[in-house]
Amino acid sequence: VGKTEEAIFYHKTAIKLKPGFAASHINLGNVFLAMRETEEAISHYKMAIKLKPNYALAHNNLGNALKENGMASEAITHYRIAMRIKPDFVEAHYNLGNALFATRETEEAISHYKMAIKLKPFAPAHYNLGNALKENGMASEAITHYKMAIKLKPGLAEAHNNLGNALLDERKTEEAIYYYKM
């Protein structure tokens, strides 16, 4: 907690010294979001956007805070703005996929997970793409992405479990048991 308070102090000092410095508001918002103080985080991300409207990172992070605060629809809006500003923003595609999946818009979530993977393959994107594909009745495609998630992050227990479930959907019981035991 001491380090967190110190970080808040220095970010607030930076804001006092240079009130128009949007990055300090983002950094302070990040500290508050990590502390699960979403209202404080939201206010600092909004201030960063007010200071620098085309700041893709501020829109993405505001989306994260809004989603954390149970406002997925508003989060989706800010992820879309972030991607309009920076079309190759991997995290914004991934985060938008998560928000869309949370609002049961799985087909669009799938396309954003795929874009995130195309830009930078990483285990959580493959895992969540697998979940969205499985939810959409595409277990065989989901299997491929669960396996890729495991290849990239072998200790991802959820991927092993969901891979086993997808394999059962495909009536591949022996292979499912193998992944359940891993």
Structure characterization notes:
The chain is mostly helical and 182 residues long. It contains eleven helices and no strands. It has helices at residues 2-17, 22-34, 38-51, 56-68, 72-85, 90-102, 106-119, 123-135, 139-152, 157-169, 173-181. The radius of gyration is 19 Å and the shape is elongated.
Approximate shape: elongated
Strand content: under 5%
Largest sheet: none
Instruction: Determine the structural class based on helices, strands and strand pairing.
Output: mainly alpha
Distance between the termini: 37 Å
Radius of gyration over C-alpha positions, nearest whole angstrom: 19 Å
Quick one: how many beta strands?
0
List unreliable stretches of 5+ residues.
Answer: none
Q: State the helical fraction.
A: over 70%
Order of helices and strands: HHHHHHHHHHH
Task: List the total number of helices.
Answer: 11
Average pLDDT: 93
What's the gist of this structure?
The protein is mainly α. It has 11 helices and no strands. The protein is elongated.
